[in-house]
Amino acid sequence: MKLDLRRQQMLLAGEWVDRTETMEVRNPENDQLVAIVPKASKTDMEQAIARAKEGAKASAALPVYKRMAILNRAADFVDAHKERFARTIATEGSKTIREARKETGRCVETLRLCAEEARRVTGETIPFDQSPGGTGRFGYYERHPLGIIGAITPFNDPLNLVAHKIGPAIAAGNAIVLKPATATPLSALLLAEAFMEADLPKGILSVMTGLGSEVGDVLITHPDVRMVSFTGGMEAGLEIAKKAGLKKKSMELGSNSPVIVLEDAQIEDAVKANVSGAFWAAGQNCIGVQRLYVHEEVYDRFKELFVKQSCAYLMGEKLSEKTDMGPLISEKEAKRVAFMVDDALRMGAALLCGGKRRGAFYEPTVLENVPDECMLAKEEIFGPVVLLYKIKSLAEGIERANQSDYGLHAGLFTESMNAVFQAIQELEAGGVMVNDSSDFRIDAMPFGGTKQSGLGREGVKFSILEMTEQKVVCFKLRDNG
Fold this sequence. Notes:
Layout: E1 10-12, E2 15-17, E3 22-26, E4 33-38, H1 42-61, H2 64-80, H3 82-92, H4 97-118, E5 124-126, E6 137-145, E7 148-152, H5 160-172, E8 175-179, H6 186-197, E9 205-207, H7 212-221, E10 225-231, H8 234-244, E11 248-252, E12 257-261, H9 267-279, E13 289-295, H10 299-312, H11 331-346, E14 350-353, E15 357-358, E16 361-362, E17 365-368, H12 375-378, E18 385-391, H13 394-401, E19 406-407, E20 409-413, H14 417-426, E21 431-434, E22 450-451, E23 454-455, H15 460-466, E24 468-476
Parallel strand pairs: 7-8, 7-10, 8-9, 10-11, 12-13, 12-20, 13-18, 17-18, 20-21
Antiparallel strand pairs: 1-2, 3-4, 5-6, 6-24, 11-23, 14-17, 15-16, 19-22
Helix pairs in contact: 1-7, 2-4, 2-6, 3-4, 4-5, 5-15, 9-10
């Protein structure tokens, strides 16, 4: 299948198929029709899972060198067509062309990491004679693929987060059935094309475009699906956890990430990093900066510079090389963000920058004095809004940062190593970024959170571990004495 930005097919167990029922993909910038994709049915999803049973056997039987070759060829395809991938991301989603190019580059790196980690799916020997009853025995454990992985991905990173599901599944020897975000399926289909061009055996991969309400339950509840890998909102994650039953789950469910800026921080660096961290991808980023706790000694200076740079952040056409920030994924989402900001303002918050909506666009927005009880302070905004708070000490910053029900990433700006190690120990988060905003991640690191930010860890090596299980082998040796 070649990506024609009108009529698309979906990938069912390695076969490109069409359906009479379809869905529209529209550009959130102007609501123009980008493409039409098949609307998968429950029967389609059941068929994909049935075909994946044979695909899982084929995948498990693939020698490691062949898995590596397939993953590297898929990476080569993405790299060779990187501008096509970037324009697809920018057209169907929220990202600017510069943001989309960065995501495409990360996708290439993710797939190459998967190829490298495929050779390291190893076990280790076990000293069975550590127990009195184990004398005369020798053994080890090895890692085996789970079988069928069911994956559901969001709209905000429509290519690289798909790569983070498909790549590790193949590296570990599994089959995978993926349901991409309804709003942004084209990037996932284009990545599926890369794997077909890379000679991935049929049956191992399905990319099913459809409504989550119609096909999602089939995927997460089917007894043959051994693991559900989900990236998305907390409420959807809780529903999946209830329905999935006794199977492995990996869930990245978002956050409202805090960053602490102490009095000895390099203020200019902190401002630059956190402006980018707050407004990258129009704030639709699970590790994006939402709450900034700034020491009172530097608060006024930080606020002045932060507001100035936020107001200068250029919002506009996604395909323009000059644009810093595009629209939200839909006008509905922009209205939701506007409602949350207006609610905070009614409760006494002060608007320092932005606060206006135009269609799906919402200006980079900065507020201070936001009451702790309002939605903006408690929930994930998932939009271009950041809150400033004044603190008197690191202890106060940590305490307030930890008041959230989430715990994905946190940031800290300071020159004090004592402060750094105190924050590392006391911040309730899956990652602490020192002298960087919360919005930092490389694709090789373990990625996930505490509390309601999710279960398990992604990141290539760690996803592969999640997608395998240990099998113990023990030999009772013959007594020759």
